Amino acid sequence: MVLPEARRGWYQNPCAEAGEPWYTSALKMSEPRLITLPSFCDQRGTLAVAEWPGTLPFTPKRFYYLYNLLPDALRGVHAHWKEEEVILALSGSFTVTVDDGCKRTEHRLDRPEIGLHIPSLIWHELHGFSTGAVCAVFASEERCDQEDYCRDYQQFLQARKARSKPRALP
Question: Is the pTM of this model over 0.90?
Answer without folding.
Answer: no
